[in-house]
Amino acid sequence: MPPVVLAFVLVPLLVEAFWVFWPALQGFYLSLTSWDGLSAPKFVGLGNFSEMVHDEVFRTAAINTVLWLLLFGGLSAALGLGAALLLQQDRRGIGFYRAALFLPVVFSLVATALVWQAMYQPDGLINNVLGAIGLGGWKHAWLADQDTAFYAVIVPALWRQVGYVMVLYLAGLKGIDPVLYEAAKVDGATRLQQFRHITLPQLRSVNAVVLSVIVIDSLRSFDVVWALTRGGPYHSSELLSTYMYSTAFQSLRLGYGSALAVVIFVLAFGVIASYLVRAFREADS
Amino acid sequence: MTAFNANRRRFLVGAGAVGAGALLSSCVTQSPSASGGKSGGPVTLQSNLSSPQAKTAMQAVVAAFDKRGGAGAQLNTVASETFRTQLPTYLTSVNPPDAYTWYPGSVAESYAKKDLLLGLDDVWEKPELAGYSDALKKLCTSASSGKKVFVPTSYYWWGVFYRKSNFAKWGVKEPKTWDEFLGLCDKLKSKGVAPIGLGAGGDTPWVASTWFDYLDIRVNGAAYHRELLAGKHRFDDPEVRKVFDKWDEARPFFDPNGTAIPFQDATTALLQGRTGMMLIGTFFADAAPKDALDDLDFFQFPIIDPKVPVAEEAPTDGYFASARTKRADGVKELLRYLASAEAQELYLKNSSGTALPTHPDAKDAGTPLVLKGRKLIESATDVTQFFNRDSSDALQPTADTALVHYLAKPKEIGSILTTWQRSAQKIWSQ
What we know:
The complex is a heterodimer of chains A (285) and B (430). Chain A is mainly alpha-helical and 285 residues long. Chain A contains 13 helices and two strands; from the N terminus they run αββαααααααααααα. In chain A, α1 packs across α13, α10 (204-219) packs antiparallel against α13 and α12 runs antiparallel to α13 (254-284). In chain B, β1 (43-47), α2 and β2 form a beta-alpha-beta unit. Chain B has helices spanning 2-30, 52-67, 80-92, 106-112, 121-125, 134-139, 164-170, 178-190, 209-219, 222-229, 238-250, 263-271, 290-293, 328-338, 341-350, 368-378, 387-390, 396-408, 413-428; strands at residues 43-47, 73-77, 99-102, 151-155, 158-163, 194-197, 275-281, 296-299, 311-313, 316-321, 356-357, 382-384. Chain B is globular and about 65 Å long. Chain B is an alpha/beta fold.
């Protein structure tokens, strides 16, 4: 093998090893220790993981993370596809609606969260509107109530994600050959049948992209939750990522925090790897 | 085509070189011996005083220090919450900021124990700090090394604050005892005002801890309170339960939005008369408009059990420095200046002026409010700091969760205290 080619492989590998693999391995090591970030880490074996089994907050965070994956993932895919179908036709002013739906994507999630925080305030926009239209009884401290906090946090995340997914689907819809629809019309297919038998199968490759984007985005969801509720009130909107951050950097239990990070890694890796394996198998057959 | 290839190759080689360079330089920064760092240049002062008035006042003090000639200082203001979570990282890094705003007592001790704080014995020997009280001297001395590690510059008091004009309008007066206090709450509620504002929502859930602190020092006394926070008692003990029994009596009078809004918004509600009063430290005035300051007054947290010696919360603020600073002389020069009467007066003049200076010769703002606050602290038989300062920063989140939970689900207090004890245990056993 010529040395240049070898260098092309080795140099990036070295860089990757130093900046990615080494810290990751350190994280694995730290997950086996008890460490306050100041003194030397103390080796405790699998102690952190066995603590997790009895940790109620961990259980809440894990359930919430799965719920988040299903709700945030499912709704953003469905709403994104719906918006794309609505906005695919070329009509006057359609560009405005597309831009409006896409606009939240360009804001950072922290900025998004700040705007929504103001709206959710006890005397914020949402409660004022509810009062004005005679639904005063629905007024609520949305972010401070454990029954609503989790869902109140999902809304801004969705608000942002829908536009993103819509754009992906719009691109996919543009790629479908119009001849297929014409043929279907000639055969007398209804709108629903066209959607079921042409649009959906043709979107398969886009679906794959959307799914992986959604899975990755929901597992790394942190910023919006942290900015709005910090996982509170009393852990009701806790995700694994926020719980990891607060144990590691607020309670300064970096060993346990690393153990949580390992769990997140395994989860993300498991979901994505199993999906990829399936996708490759489908591609082969 | 060839030009493109050559360009691309040059780019990749360049990228590889950058990567390798980064590798090398990272190796260098990781070894402490090789990190020379600059020993000259201004002293970096990391500050968490980010509310507008406090920040302006800090800038004025630093500017005055620079004008004297000598070391010179550079002020970095960091949002309070970020500062708190980053502090261990600052102190353990190889090239840390030199001096920091922070708190004395057990919070400083946790770092002093690990040799992360600069010994300041020679700063305390100089005339600037000679007249400081013995209580302050003790507070700033590390229990593990016996060295002074902290320079206090101001302290403030907590009290139940209200607007004089509003109390006059509602025809009510300051209460002395717990029963009078509950009576006052009743009266305010009947007038359609939320009697007690809180402000434990958003990113200031720690405000709720002061209700716990005060009820505990009024019911069980300051000595028990300190022992509890040091892990010598359990949070599910009957003594702690008594604290919440008292809290239950006042809870119906809390603003229902108490756990939904941060203390800054709760301050606004108080100033606008939507809430009647608020147990808070004087720092809240830094966010209040100046014209409202003259209308503010406070009363002492009501006495619950006359047999318990009266203690008050009076957290002390000031500075410590990193043991790894390369500008130890400059840092000490800065700290000496900050401890001087001149610097403390300058700070008070530019901020809301509701804090009290630690230097015996420094003049406070002299307003009736400040005089009353000074008297409150000076007549107390014991002085506590604040939940996190009497325990640790790591324990604070356990209190936040437990207390916010209690305010929403008071009936679950039994299980809340068990959970609190369990999470506190994890911190103490670390």
